[in-house]
Design brief:
The complex is a heterodimer. Chain A is α+β, with helices and mostly antiparallel strands. Chain A is built from seven helices and 37 strands. The chains are: A alpha+beta, B mainly alpha.
């Protein structure tokens, strides 16, 4: 493409964006609240014309403009402005019918599609999943690299490069690029550095790879360093504020391997450079230390260790799908958040619930000390009689768990340790421990049906517990979300858990869309033009002191006021069309919110509702890595 | 109203009622699964059952704790998936669909299934020889499951369908078994069991 033509096209896109921006009314927040019910029966489920009506033959310009018209007509934005829509997957035209399909402008219903989004400095990385059932075999979409422009409210991000998509199955299947974590940091030698961790394991059993990036150009400068034997589903990227050279990846394996959590150093903690070979530091396995076993099956009556599930399989939704029933519990680790000081890990443990891990030795030791095994046991103690997982817990081994580098806070609680070391009978100890262990994980499954269970767990920042004996200002609350991909009715929402007693997490507040009630879910209408029911559960939350932005999949982004954690309330919504299946963490860059839609691409929003002042105006913030970190280009004069 | 006319009206009412009843009973069921979907479930159950047989051989034939744990993990995961598949077949049956049975002779052979001779050889082996045979056999078995899963996904793609429960299940099978293949291949090398090139 010639340069003048490129500039002309860019100008058109910018002008279109300016002309069509949807502004959510800054309506005063009413005295009572409800969640916004999307009018699914009126929602165009596909490409639109300039008037916002379904039209698979429309031009790209009209399809883009029509989305903003439809969004305004249907009231799909409140206390949010839809600043930019950046489609990232091209459409193809059927010459016989003139219909476009397969691209973001079409709201391509990709089923298992998912997107990855990460921002560092002014660089934005955008990943796209493909799989045989959604795009067909051997289709790849490279990771796109964008530069966020000056005056980003006016100017959408501009693509500056790409990274080839990886494949598995001899090239048949593309890796699901939905876990991208770029990060910029200044090492102790004054060098401004940037890296990106990419999990090629999500969905495809690949590797966790760390690339060194050029912070000026946003482009990778190497082929990446692979962490052998780490099969992450999701991961948290932790930056040690006391030693800025040190970055760790905490991988959650979600059933891909024995270990639930694998802690790996990806930088040299003396220099800050990316390690050519990531260093294994420690791992944790909940079932290994006597916790609930993975893939638990019920007895013949349907009874699990934790109780009995509600059963809705006799019901049928508008997509001819039965209601929910559950045949096993996963009980593996899905996601989690490490505290800024590194001493706690807030675990999203699927059907095993949410619980807190003690990671003090990880935080307070060097990588070399940990790798030597000298300061703590790197792998979880097997606390079962004769090592037989799922048999009988050996109470005499339980005190050893406190010596593991990563272990539940329960296992180093002074009272619990004293009880386990007392002269009580083993049977008495086991009974007391079992009660405490069960209460140390907040789980709603059973009775509520949610195949995955707890998906994310993010502590609320800047609101420490005021309870006595909290010198480290540990948080009082954790926000959790719950999942069942393409789950049958009913849907799943968000909860707030009190963790002032870390060994006894307890739910205090919840917020759900109306489809969490099974009858509403069953009656939920099909959008015209759509071919699948998208996922509809609360997925990834970006959490601030009083406001949470949740990527709520088919419900778009929801702003939840959590100033009173006992009574969370929805105070804004942003739901793009033709789809709006927001899967990523809504990431903040200099006051704007960037989010990835599985079916339509990259969206930029501006939140204008209650607590908008908490959205950082000069930083990058995401709940899946230590935040905030610096926005903007590297400072002049630095190496 | 004449008798003939009255009969015609009643006939129309009856036909309309029958159509409504038919739509209520067969409509949703017809949209739920195709015969190919159900055959996939049936075959994958048979495939998983051989994985259970393989896993059961491990504890008494190796001293490697990692392999024993791995076999237990495979066993639990595949049992849970069998339950899931049986439950989907039961749902289809409840909605009036005919559930296919596996026909050893009429059905096409499933990729990755080990022969009886291979299973016998495994059962007779112990120690290092068993570990090598088992890992190689389970890799082949898992790769067969991937082939079956991908074929099912291709059917989803080509028909634009997302059959309830099977979509997620197939994805899960592909994810977990790819990861397990990665792990088993690494062990073959790390334990010095891979054939030297």
């Amino acid at each position: 493409m010639t340069r003048p033509l490129s500039f002309a096209l860019l100008a058109v896109v910018i002008a279109a964006s300016l002309a069509t921006r949807v502004s959510g009314q800054n309506t005063p927040v009413p005295a009572t609240f409800t969640t916004f019910d999307i009018p699914f029966d009126k929602l165009p489920g596909g490409r639109m014309n300039a008037q916002g009506n379904l039209d698979p033959t429309s031009s790209a310009r009209d399809a883009h403009a029509g989305a903003f018209v439809a969004a305004k007509r249907l009231g799909l934005f409140r206390n949010f402005e839809w600043v930019h829509w950046v489609p990232t997957a091209p459409s193809t035209r059927d010459p016989a019918t003139g219909h476009w399909r397969g691209g973001d402008l079409d709201g391509f219903p990709t089923g298992w599609g998912s997107t990855g989004l990460g921002i560092a400095g002014d660089c934005l990385y955008w990943g796209r999943s493909n799989s045989t059932n959604t795009t067909g075999p051997r289709v790849t979409h490279d990771v796109k690299i964008f530069k966020i422009q000056p005056d980003p409210e006016k100017n959408p991000p501009v693509e500056v490069g790409s990274m080839p998509q990886l494949t598995v199955d001899n090239g048949e299947t593309a890796v699901r690029d939905r876990e991208l974590r770029p990060y910029n940091y200044t090492s102790t030698d004054g060098v401004e550095r940037m890296l990106m961790v990419r999990s090629a394991a999500t969905g495809t059993g690949g590797d966790v790879i760390t690339y060194t990036l050029d912070p000026q150009t946003c482009l990778p400068v190497d082929g990446g360093a692979k962490a052998e034997g780490v099969l992450a589903h999701e991961f948290y990227l932790w930056h040690d504020r006391r030693n800025p050279n040190r970055l760790l990846v905490l991988s959650q394996t979600y059933g891909s391997q024995d270990e639930d959590l694998v802690v790996t150093a990806i930088t040299d903690d003396k220099t800050g450079k990316v390690l050519a070979k990531p260093l294994f530091l420690a791992s944790f396995t909940l079932e290994g230390i006597g916790g609930p076993v993975k893939n638990e099956r019920p007895d013949s009556t349907g009874l699990y260790t934790g109780g009995r599930f509600a059963d809705y399989r006799h019901l049928t939704d508008q997509w001819a799908r039965p209601g929910a029933t559950q045949t096993s519990t996963v009980n593996s680790l899905h996601s989690g958040t490490m505290s800024d000081d590194g001493e706690r890990f807030y675990a999203a443990g699927t059907t095993a619930g949410t619980y807190i891990l003690n990671t003090e030795r990880i935080a307070n030791s060097t990588n070399a000390q940990l790798a030597s095994g000298g300061v703590c046991r790197q792998r979880s103690t097997n606390a079962w009689v004769d090592g037989k997982i799922g048999g009988v817990v050996d109470v005499r081994k339980l005190p050893e768990v406190a010596g593991d580098c990563v272990h539940p806070v329960l296992n180093s609680d002074p009272g619990v340790l004293a009880m386990l070391r007392s002269d009580r009978s083993d049977a008495d100890k086991l009974a007391r421990y079992t009660r405490l262990e069960t209460r140390s994980r907040f789980s709603f499954t059973p009775p509520l049906v949610a195949m995955v269970g707890v998906h994310s767990a993010v502590p609320i920042p800047s609101r420490p517990s005021l309870s006595r004996g909290n010198p480290k200002s540990r948080p009082a609350w954790v926000v959790i979300t719950e999942e069942w991909p393409f789950g049958p009715c009913p849907e799943r929402g968000l909860r707030i858990v009190n963790i002032e007693s870390e060994i006894t997490p307890m739910m205090v507040g919840a917020l759900a869309q109306s489809d969490s009630m099974v009858q509403n879910c069953l009656a939920q209408a099909k959008p015209p033009g759509s071919t699948i029911r998208p996922m509809m559960h609360a997925h990834n939350p970006t959490v601030f002191e009083n406001i949470v932005f949740v990527g709520w999949l088919g419900h778009g982004v929801r702003a939840i006021d959590i100033s009173n954690p006992f009574n969370p309330r929805e105070v804004g919504h942003a739901r793009p069309v033709p789809w709006g299946d927001i899967i990523t963490y809504p990431d903040v860059h200099n006051g704007l919110i960037y989010a990835g839609d599985n079916h339509t691409g990259l969206h930029v929003f501006k939140y204008t509702g209650p607590h908008a002042d908490e959205v950082p105006k000069n930083a990058v913030y995401s709940s899946n890595r230590t935040s905030p970190h610096a926005s903007g280009p590297p400072r002049p004069g630095r190496k | 109203m004449s008798g003939a006319r009255s009969r015609l009206v009643w006939l129309c009412v009856f036909a309309a009622s029958a159509a409504v009843v038919s739509a209520q009973t067969t409509g949703p069921a017809a949209g739920l699964y195709t015969p190919d979907d159900l055959l996939f479930l049936r075959h994958m159950i048979v495939h998983h059952e051989q994985a259970l047989e393989l896993a059961a051989l491990v504890p008494s034939r190796t001293g490697r704790e990692a392999l024993v744990r791995f076999a237990r993990q495979v066993e639990r995961a595949q049992k849970a998936e069998i339950d899931q598949m049986e439950s989907l077949l039961a749902l289809a049956a409840e909605r009036g669909m005919t559930i296919p049975q596996h026909d050893l002779h009429a059905d096409a052979p499933m990729p990755g299934l080990l022969s009886r001779a291979q299973m016998d050889a495994l059962a007779a082996a112990t120690g290092t020889a068993f570990e090598r045979l088992w890992l190689e056999g389970m890799i082949v078995h898992h790769e067969g499951a991937l082939t079956m899963g991908r074929a099912q996904q291709r059917r989803h793609f080509e028909s634009g369908r997302q059959p309830y429960g099977i979509d997620v299940l197939v994805d899960e099978i592909l994810v977990v078994q790819r990861a397990e293949i990665t792990k088993m291949k690494a062990w073959l090398t790390a334990w010095g069991l891979a054939p030297r090139s």
